[in-house]
């Protein structure tokens, strides 16, 4: 409602949508509708009801006098009021769902879902990344729930640390023995078969986590932090995939 003034006009939207106002009442409501966004929204929700009732009246077997009279009868004020209330409830539910989605996205942003850094704190431009290090590697070190696997073919090793959050799962992957140049993603695969990309990153030509590397930066693992809407017990396994579809390693959850 938008205040006591015009409250009767607001309550009329259901009757107008059902086509049960007389000419004078309909004209008065249309004047109100031109300046009332709330009623316009409610009318949009209710507008399809009158044609549905009319179509029902034309169905075979509904032409008996009793049914015709029932379909033609005007709804009671209580029914009209309940219809409007139902519309309001549906709109409130949509707003709540939107709020939860925004809250989950905000939580992922705060958690640093795209924080990707080598352990030495440097990026390809030689700049230090201490903030990203504290976000990804420090988070990895503080999480106790970790799973590890090494692919027999690629020899890439991945350790995924995870933590349950209200919005799903926070995850940090430690990647070793991976050579570039590559573009990769950490993907959570649900027990229902759905796939969610948790984070993406690039691997330079020298690679990361290579024990016998001649380049100092290449000896350090890479850490990538991200999030998934799955809860931990909904995840079957994790995959590190290249952008061209090659699986580097899979890690059971």
TrEMBL record:
Stretches that traverse the bilayer: 99-119
Residue ranges of every copy of the Putative zinc-finger domain listed in the record: 13-40
Segments forming a coiled coil: none
Species this chain originates from: Streptomyces prunicolor
Protein name: Zf-HC2 domain-containing protein
Keyword Transmembrane helix: yes
Keywords: Membrane, Transcription, Transcription regulation, Transmembrane, Transmembrane helix
Leader sequence residues: none
Keyword Membrane: yes
């Amino acid at each position: 409602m938008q205040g006591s003034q015009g409250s009767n006009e607001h309550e009329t939207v259901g009757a107008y949508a059902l086509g049960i106002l007389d000419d004078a009442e309909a004209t008065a409501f249309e004047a109100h509708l031109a300046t009332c966004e709330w009623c316009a929204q409610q009318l949009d929700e209710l507008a399809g009801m009158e044609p549905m009732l009319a179509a029902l009246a034309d169905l075979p077997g509904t032409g008996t006098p009793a049914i015709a009279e029932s379909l033609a009868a005007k709804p009671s004020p209580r029914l009209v009021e309940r219809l409007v209330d139902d519309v309001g409830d549906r709109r409130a539910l949509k707003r709540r769902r939107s709020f939860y989605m925004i809250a989950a996205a905000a939580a992922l942003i705060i958690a640093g879902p795209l924080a990707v850094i080598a352990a030495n704190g440097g990026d390809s431009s030689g700049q230090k990344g201490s903030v990203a290090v504290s976000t990804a590697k420090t988070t990895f070190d503080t999480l106790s729930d970790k799973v590890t696997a090494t692919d027999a073919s690629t020899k890439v090793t991945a350790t995924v640390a995870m933590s349950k959050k209200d919005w799903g799962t926070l995850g940090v992957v430690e990647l070793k023995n991976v050579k570039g140049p590559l573009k990769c993603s950490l993907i959570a695969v649900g027990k229902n078969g759905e796939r969610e990309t948790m984070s993406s990153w690039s691997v330079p030509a020298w690679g990361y986590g290579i024990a016998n590397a001649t380049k100092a930066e290449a000896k350090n693992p890479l850490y990538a932090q991200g999030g998934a809407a799955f809860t931990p017990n909904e995840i079957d396994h994790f995959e590190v995939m290249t952008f061209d579809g090659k699986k580097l390693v899979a890690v059971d959850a």
